[in-house]
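User: Last request for today: this protein with S-adenosylmethionine, please.
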Amino acid sequence: MALTEDAHRLVQDHFTNKDKTLAIDATCGNGYDTEFLYALGFRKIYAFDVQKTAISAARKKLHADAMSVVEFVLAGHESMREFVREPVDCIMFNFGYLPTGDKNITTNAETSISALEGAKGLLKCGGALSLMCYPGHPAGALETQAIKDWFLSLGDDWSIETHLAKSPKPSAPILFLLKRANS
Ligand SMILES: C[S@@+](CC[C@H](N)C(=O)[O-])C[C@H]1O[C@@H](n2cnc3c(N)ncnc32)[C@H](O)[C@@H]1O
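Assistant: Here's the final one, the structure of the complex with S-adenosylmethionine:
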């Protein structure tokens, strides 16, 4: 099973019998994670991406009924707090570049850490944050290290699960699931 599928399974397990009011797909891309969050039953979803082509692809992918739930935001996730004012149950990041698109348009350490700070401020107690990281390309390696360093800033109310690829090499994708304890 691919780690992206593990991310879906872990998020689904976490939210079984839990409130699913608001979610953020911080890297909408082709819309697989947005579609997953919609199918899981979140009542409102913000989906961020810096690329118009990604948002158009995601819009096409989703069922028409999802349009009343999903709000697409053509902006960097580092500005999520300008768009989202209310506490959030779940935030998913799938870092990197669109496999089908311009590989130069990729997430990077500086804006990703800024976005994670925003996410930290928005996530409800009992909420979950999934981070799919790709250290196999240069920007992704720096970003993954910066994210691991950022974990040190999290308080005792956060737990971090690490999920490795089947054949873990330093360049293999890595998935983190962060949970914020109930207060
Ligand atoms: C690996 S893809 C995401 C895949 C997507 N979650 C899906 O299900 O198809 C990474 C996406 O991050 C987007 N991206 C890059 N920098 C970004 C930023 N600062 N804020 C939001 N999205 C960004 C890219 O445009 C790309 O679409």
